[in-house]
Design goal:
The chain is of the alpha/beta class. It has a single domain, classed as TIM Barrel (Alpha-Beta Barrel). Strands 1, 2, 3, 4, 5 and 6 form a 6-stranded parallel beta sheet that branches. The protein is about 40% helix and about 15% strand. The protein has helices spanning about 10-15, 30-35, 50-65, 80-90, 115-125, 155-165, 175-185, 210-215, 230, 240-255, 280-290, 295-315, and strands spanning about 1-5, 40-45, 75, 100-105, 125-130, 170, 190, 220-225, 260. The chain is globular and about 50 Å long.
Length: about 325
């Protein structure tokens, strides 16, 4: 089993006109393929989020999707929800497997500066959020806007309230200035839900060595992104070995407590030797073999690192 902290299936199903219950050749994730891959829990992201109207429309869609019993999705709102799901999974056959679903938002632009909507979204089930997508908003600046403007006063208030409520702070998509402003004020573990290492693939969406160290210092963890444009500076050179090198880089900079899966499935173009979520077990097996990792190391990468952050932030 494994946890993936960034899956864009809700958006992809809408774009590709497909359902979750039926196995499809489109996209990367549906129920049959998630069951085959042995996905324990996904952070199924809400996107786009550029206004409160669009965010709330998406949230309603997310609630309908996870409410439908045919989808076999279990809303994960606290750590006990995950523990109960994992226990049930031990006796479930492949076609019976339930999939945990964490509600997360890819950007906070739809939240008001007084944070009233944050309170409402938390009650709905929001448990992880990035401050931006690629845009500049009232809270922070995304990486596509350059490195001038960073975290605003409203952004500092947002981060503080997220930590008080128990919402995981996701640093993926922030520009460098916003990232470092945020790291100066966080008191709980953060995640980079779907980011890689910039020294191996020179893209501003990736993390520098110093950023990896900073996330590690909070007790946080980094979801390795399978998007070929973030795996190699020349995306056409990306393959499964590029993913192994990203895991190796994070582990060498920090340790095996700082890496997990954040593949950006249904939101990216995969390397040509990977097809969909059913290839994740192959990637994890290759990580273990190529990097000579122990079973304990792999337990951390598969589920343990994200569980640790969940427990420390949510409880």
């Amino acid at each position: 089993m494994f946890i993936d902290t960034h899956i864009a299936t809700l958006w992809a199903m809408r774009e590709q006109e497909r359902t979750f219950t039926s196995r499809s050749e489109k996209g990367h994730v549906d129920l049959p393929r998630a069951q085959e891959a042995d996905l324990l829990c996904g952070f199924f992201t809400g996107f786009p989020t550029e206004s409160h109207f669009i965010t709330e429309k998406m949230l309603a869609e997310w609630l309908r999707w996870t409410r439908d019993p045919e989808n076999k999705l279990v809303r994960i709102r606290n750590f006990k929800d995950l523990e109960r799901l994992e226990e049930r999974r031990k006796s479930q056959r492949q076609s019976e497997k339930e999939i945990g679903a964490v509600l997360c938002l890819e950007g906070a632009a739809g939240i008001d500066s007084e944070l009233n909507l944050l309170e409402i979204y938390y009650e709905i089930g929001l448990r992880s959020m990035g401050l931006t997508w690629n845009e500049e908003n009232q809270f922070a600046t995304g990486q596509a806007q350059g490195n001038g403007r960073g975290l605003t006063a409203e952004g500092r208030n947002l981060v503080a309230r997220m930590e008080e409520l128990g919402i995981i702070v996701d640093v993926s998509h922030l520009n460098d200035t916003s990232f470092w402003n945020l790291m100066d004020i966080v008191t709980k573990p953060v995640i980079a839900s779907h980011s890689n290492v910039r020294e191996l693939a020179n893209h501003p969406r990736n993390l520098t060595k110093e950023m990896v160290e900073a996330i590690h210092s909070t007790g946080g963890t980094i979801g390795i992104n399978f998007y070929k444009g973030f795996l190699e500076t020349d995306p056409e050179k990306a393959d499964i070995n590029s993913i192994i090198r990203m895991f190796e880089a994070v582990i060498n900079i920090a340790d095996t407590k700082t890496a997990h899966i954040g593949a950006d499935l249904d939101g990216c173009t995969l390397p040509p030797d990977l097809k969909d979520i059913t290839d994740v077990p192959k990637v994890l097996d290759k990580v273990k073999e190529e990097l000579s990792l122990t079973n304990q190391d792999m337990e951390r990468i598969r589920t343990g690192n994200v569980k640790r952050v969940m427990r420390q932030v949510w409880e």
